[in-house]
Design brief:
Distance between the termini: 48 Å
Strand content: 15-25%
Mean pLDDT: 93
Low-confidence stretches: none
Shape: elongated
Structural class: alpha/beta
Helix content: 25-40%
Radius of gyration: 21 Å
Largest sheet: 4 strands, mixed
Number of strands: 6
Number of helices: 10
């Protein structure tokens, strides 16, 4: 991937956690300086990297993510959403399907909301286990995420984004429970029912039935 991206020109910063692989890539850069003129190899964990300091201006993200920390890496990237044009990642297909899931579907959850809040995600390629060496026990997918997502059209101030996402997470805390049960702490039933009615949701609605716009409206009404 690094070789192919380097051949396209521009500045490329490659983050590799495995020291032997990072050293091998660095040696290749030094041995063949011409096609690698603007490539920097960073040996380290992406979750510990200050992405904002690695490149100037806007940037794109490409990578094969460790499947078990896909969600933490995406949360880490979203902290820099204002500078990212697009994200192209290979992840477990099951996770990719949860990310692109729409309201009312079984896979729709908090991960769907936060990813669609910041990006417009789309599965562009389904990848079988045989495409890897050694082959994993799960199917994979290439996910394209263009920015911005629905965040651009919602009336949520940047200072309120963290509180909004925590609110959504609380709504999905017990997915099979109604929103009334997940949100009743410190609020009366009448207050919750009125807020649900105001956003066009049923009194017995569950989190998986609300759109991101409805979550934003519900957040605003319950946090006046």
């Amino acid at each position: 991937m690094t070789r192919l991206l380097a051949a396209r020109g521009g500045t490329l910063v490659a983050i590799e956690r495995d020291p032997p692989l990072a050293q091998k890539l660095q040696a290749e850069v030094l041995q063949n300086p011409a096609p690698w003129a603007r490539v920097e190899i960073v040996s380290g964990d992406v979750l510990s990297c200050n992405l904002g300091s690695l490149v100037a201006g806007r940037f794109r993200v490409c990578g094969n993510l460790p499947y078990y920390i896909t969600s933490p890496i995406l949360h880490h990237l979203f902290r820099h959403a204002h500078r990212i044009d697009s994200i192209h990642i290979v992840i477990q297909r099951e996770v990719a399907e949860r990310i692109v899931a729409r309201p009312g579907s079984r896979d729709y959850g908090y991960l769907s909301v936060i990813c669609q809040f910041y990006t417009k995600p789309q599965i562009v390629l389904r990848i079988p286990p045989g495409a890897f060496r050694p082959p994993p026990k799960v199917n994979s997918a290439l996910l394209q995420m263009t920015l911005p997502g629905e965040r651009a059209s919602l009336q949520i101030k940047p200072a309120d984004e963290t509180a909004f996402l925590e609110f959504v997470q609380r709504c999905f805390q017990q997915k099979r429970r109604t929103l009334r049960n997940n949100l009743r702490e410190g609020r009366s039933d009448a207050e919750i029912f009125q807020a649900l009615a105001d956003v066009g949701a049923r009194a017995d609605a569950r989190a998986e039935q609300l759109t991101i716009a409805q979550f934003a409206a519900l957040f605003a009404r319950l946090n006046k």
